[in-house]
User: What shape does this take?
Amino acid sequence: MFKESVEALKRENLFRSFRYIESAQGPRIILDGRRVINMCSNNYLGLADHPLLKEAAKKIIDEYGVGCGASRLVGGNNILYRELEGRLAIFKETEAALVFNSGYTANIGILQGISEKIDVIFSDRLNHASIVDGIILSRVNFKRYPHKDFKALEDMLSKEDRAKKKLIVTDTIFSMDGDIAPLPDIVELAERFNAMVMVDEAHATGVLGKDGKGALNHFGLKGRVEIQMGTFSKAFGGFGAFVCGSNELIEFLINTARSLIYTTALPPSVLASNIAALNIVESEPTIRQRLWENVEYFKKGLLSYRFDISESETPIIPIILKDNELTMNFSRMLLEEGVYIQGIRPPTVPQGSSRLRVTVIATHTREDLDKALEAIVKVAKKLGVE
Ligand SMILES: Cc1ncc(COP(=O)(O)O)c(C=O)c1O
Assistant: This one.
C-alpha cells in the first residue's frame, strides 16, 4: 500500500530518512559515527549544551522529577511556568506570555484558537508549514500573498470588505531563505486596513534586536503587533515555544487553543533550562556579536565564489541549486568531506528551488568556517556548479 509511494519519492529524489547524532549539539557533532562540522543547526547562540542550561535542568530534575503528569489546565502547571512567562512578557515588551510545547503546536494552537475572531487571513507564501497547518485547522478563509510583496498585500487588502476581521501573518526571519519580512510596511498596512498582525519570531528571537528581543524590536515596532510568537528551540538551544501579547489575548488562548489545552505540560527541566537561556540571551551580547561576525565572514566567503544565496540577511544562508538530485548529491559529497549541510527540497521549499540550507552559529571557529567553505567550493567544482 505504501511501498509504491515510497518508491516514487525515491525516484524523484524526494525521499527523506533520518541520520543519528551521538554527541551534544554544537559546531562539531558525531553524525552516524563520524565527527563532522555541523552547518545545519538552529542552535544559533550555541546554547544547546551550555553548562548553565544543563545545570539548571539537572537541578530541577532532582527537585521536581522528569514529567509534569498532566496538561497545564489539569494538574501539570509547574510553578516555573509562572517565572518563565513573566520573564518572557518583559523580554518581549508585552503584557503577558503563554508557553506552548513547541513552535509547531504554538502556531496551530494560536491560529485555531483565534479563528472565531477572524474572517480572512493573509499569509506570506513562504511562511513556515506550522502557520500553513494552523490556517487549515482554523478553517478561516485565507489568501497567500507573494513572498514579502507588501504591494500585492496592499492590493489584496484593499479589495477586501472593510468590515471583515482581518489577520496578516508572517515569519519575521524566513526559515528556508534567511531573509527578513518587511515588517514596517506590513504593520503600516495593517493599521491602514484595520487588520491584526501575527508574527512568527522563531528564528529572530535571540538573534535580532536589542538583547535578542527579535525583529519587532529591531524595527522599533513595539506595541504595534498584537500576536508575537517565538520559540525556545532555536537560539535558546532548548525546546518549547511561546506567544506574547495582551492579557486579554493570553486569557482567551488559554481557553481556546486546543494544542495547549489537550496536551501534557512540558517537563519542569525544560522550563528551567529555558529560563537559564533567557538569562544568557539578555545578559551576554558578545555571543550574539560573535554570531553576526561569523555570519558576515561566511557570507562574504560564499559570495566571493558567486554562489546564489538568494536574499539571505541572517544566519540562515541558502545555496540555491534548484535541482533535487544535484542538491542531495552536493549534500552527500559534503558529508564525505566532513561537513554536514542538509539539502532541502519540495514540499519544504517551492518546486525548482531546492537548496543547501547552511546555518552559521556563534560557536563555529574561523577554522570550522574556512573548512566548510573549502569543502563547498571543492564539491561545487566537482559537480560543475558555477
Ligand atoms: C518559522 C518557524 N516557525 C515555527 C517552527 C516550529 O518550531 P518548533 O521546532 O519549536 O516546533 C519552526 C521550526 O521548526 C520555524 O522555522
In short: The CA atoms of residues 337 and 375 lie 6 Å apart. The chain has two domains: 9-38+285-383, 51-283. The pocket of pyridoxal-5'-phosphate is lined by residues 102-104, 107, 128, 130, 171, 175, 200, 202-203, 231, 233, 241 (CB under 6 Å). The radius of gyration is 21 Å.
